[in-house]
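I'll show a typical protein example:
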Amino acid sequence: MHQLKALLFGSKSFIDTLVELKTFLKFNLINSSQVSNNVDVDYDVLIVDADVLEDDQILKTINKINSIKILASYNNNKFDKFNFYLKLPTTVNHINYIVENSVAKKLFNKNSSIKINNYHLDQNERKLIKDNTFLILTEKEVQLLKLFLTHKKPISKKNILSLVWHYSSDADTHTVETHIYRLRKKINDKFYDEKFILNNKDGYFL
């Protein structure tokens, strides 16, 4: 992983404290007050001191930057615009953990998300998502959708059986039909989409 970059928003005492710890931190510190055009630079995380949240100009700048946002505060107040929370006082090890873990989690979530037409499939949480609505899937249903997505052409019931069920002794083509029927019904009940999974004489497809 490249050296992470953290842009700091905070009071002078807050920033000075982190700068004193600089040699022990596993990321680069960048003071927002010393950088122009903050929005145009690619930062891995923003570390924001809760004491500056009353400054409307700083809030506007923070909202424009598309990076992981970490709120550092002595209180338990949390804000929707922040992804992670750093409770103060804290230790150097915990600061490093929060920064590195937040970036790793974002990367993990990004890699787990698959776009399917107007939907997103979250493999980790087994969710099919559209807008603000989601549907919980079974492991087999996730495998089916991934299989359909990776095949450009319709795939037959026998091939589905081979690739998903590996011809297990308790599975046959009726098992495939039943699972697809249930999955179609779940999708239609949740999203009112009757054409999510299609089929023709050659098999099933998206």
